[in-house]
Amino acid sequence: MELTPAFVLHQRPYRETSLLLDVFSEQYGRVSLVAKGVRGKKRSQSGLLQLYQPLLLSWIGRGELQTLTVAEAASPRYLLRAESALCGLYINELMVRLLPIHEQEQAIFNAYQLALSGLQQADNTEIVLRLFEKRLLSHLGYGLVLDRVADSNQPINEQYQYCYQPDAGLTLWQQGHKQPPISGRSLQHLLSERDFDQQSLQEIKQLMRTVIHFYLSGKPLQSRQLFVQLQQYAHSQG
Q1: Which CATH number does 4-73 carry?
Q2: Are 23 and 33 in contact (CB under 8 A)?
């Protein structure tokens, strides 16, 4: 096959000299590849197969696990440092957990590159994450209906409090609801993708956490646990 743009989302050792790669490609979606011998003599290729490195890849085979044949750098690697690197691990894990195998997702590929660029700039990683989560869910068919109440079809009001149920949609928040409330004002920020502030970002974060938790069937994300552990360590040293 011809070379296709791709990123490595996750890698792990395989046998003595190989790597198992979770790859997200522009033309073929998420694929699982074995990179044979790269941990032995071909150290330069092993170093090339890093996270956040735009690649041109080719592979052969059938079934779920195929064999990498060619790997080239497409452009310089996105340099994610400190908190941005943890955010990168988070969006990679989300994609590994939520993306189906062998389904082209051009819009998600574009959204992923946009997110990596935002994380490299590191101006506001919270905004980058929230927008990527929104776009990922939308393109996977889990799009959030955020502009009107599910049961009445009434448009949202900035002064009201709502909660979002992934299997039902927006409802007016009432005391005793399990889901955290989100104001109509914060929903407007997410819809327009601008004017975020600390309060709206916090409420949107809780909304996205609830929705993603639902689609992951309640299974925890390792990257999120790592982030919590690092925060606890930093606090204990402070």
Answers
A1: 2.40.50.140
A2: yes
